[in-house]
Specification:
The chain is an alpha+beta fold. Helix content is about 35%, strand content about 35%. It has six helices and seven strands. It has a seven-stranded mixed sheet with strand order 1-2-3-4-5-7-6, sandwiched between helices. Strand 3 and strand 4 form a beta hairpin. The longest helix has 16 residues. The protein starts with a strand and ends with a helix.
Length: about 180
Amino acid sequence: MIELKLIKEEDLINIIKWNENTTRDFLMQWSGNLYSYPLTINQLKYYLKKSKENFNVFIYKIILEKNKMIGTIELKISDEGRTIGRICRVLIGDEAYRGKGIGTEVIIKALKIGFENFKLDKITLGVYDFNKSAIRCYEKAGLKKYKLIENKSKASDGMWDCNEMYISREEFYALTNEN
């Protein structure tokens, strides 16, 4: 059973561990341009503090079996009318749990939080176009591509393009047969 719980400062060390011995590109792939490489605990603490002051940013830890934290996901309310949300910084950090379909379940849980708890009308996300497994995961959860942003981010091998994806509340409830 997967749970999403708001992250706490003591959980941040896991994110540091998952990013040890990785590259600048790995960091950018899951966090966009938010953090600078190498990732430090101070960057994470600062962002967590700012997110708590913001009231529109919710950072969740992904919990599996016996309170084991295996990743993170963020849900932001991205418009002033509080009708559009954005999923970002999705990371299944513990490599043992990647490629097992957990990501789809995590996305569905985040969508459910957005639509039920925050009463959002639409939720979006961005994913680099080469990340085929993430795109499949998001599509399984019901999100659809609607725009390609070329040259979104500068990486070690050139510029990365980004697919923007979305799902509406009505589409989500139709897929999950809930209301």
